[in-house]
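Deliverable D5.2: sample structural annotation.
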Amino acid sequence: MTKRLQRIWRYGPLLIWMGFISFASTSEFSALNTSQVLRPLILWIFPNLSEEQVATIHLLTRKLAHFSEYAALGILSARAFSSSAHDFIQRRWFQISLILIVCYALLDEFHQSFVPSRTASIYDSAIDVAGGLAALLACRRFLRRSQN
């Protein structure tokens, strides 16, 4: 495989996922739009819930989505940077990945502040970073075990 193909294979999934996160920050994934899908599903599974309970489950599902999408970003960044052809990046994959996650989480919320149907929240950024950090810690543990 050529170096160019290796680079695409290494960084392509990371860049595609970052694009998905940016798309998920648009009005398409606003609380109003996701409630149109999630509310009927929640009521189908739990038909006797009150509106308040449905709203709580919807909120928790949205926060879990924040955590999960950044956990995936953590895994993909660990994959890309830990296998880099550049020794500096490879040795510091954890720190570089964490910096990417923190910056992207903050940029994501900043972007949402300009979308009329979305709200920016530093708490969402904290959830994002927690998801990414949890994945990075799991990746580091896995890589250390596989090297022994």
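Annotation notes: Residues 3-147 form one domain. The two ends are 28 Å apart (CA to CA).
The annotation will be released with the project's public dataset once the embargo ends.
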